Amino acid sequence: MPEKARKIEKLRLIEHLVDEARTIADDEGEHLIGAKLEDCLVCALARRSSLDH
Question: Is the pTM of this model over 0.85?
Answer without folding.
Answer: no
